[in-house]
Task: structure prediction
Amino acid sequence: MKDNKGMSLIELIVVLAISAVLVSITGVSISVLGSSKMKATGRLINQKMAATRLTAMSRSGQYAVQFRKDGGKTYIETLKRASSSTAWTVSSKEEVDKRLTIKYTAGGTTREVDSNRVIFCFKKGSGGLYNCTNISGDDLGKPSKITVVKGDRTYDIQVSAVTGKTSH
Result:
């Protein structure tokens, strides 16, 4: 009987190959999970923009979608303002995964959503968009794109200022 005190070279290579396959599968799974959250957030933004646009076209008052950062968290909020009021009220609020960044392009300049907020306000008749503003009321220019970012991956949403429609 042979005294076997360890693994043969072939057994070691097989174990290493199996380990490498498991590590690569785990890496791909984590990557796909992050990508799916980015796409889900992009779809949520499309949904919020479309629903708010339709509401603005059919009801009185003003309606908008606001992106803001507060305490390290990013939020997507739908807003309503009565015709006789200057104050916005929040109709709905969604928190964005903290590993995602939201950027927007308005007036030819791309900015990251920060605590100063950005508001996409829809017009009553056409559903088009006014120029983007921040919470101070500063004119940021015509909106053209919203981007969800995770690492080096992006999910771009094109925005038509004329019609208010969004597309991926």
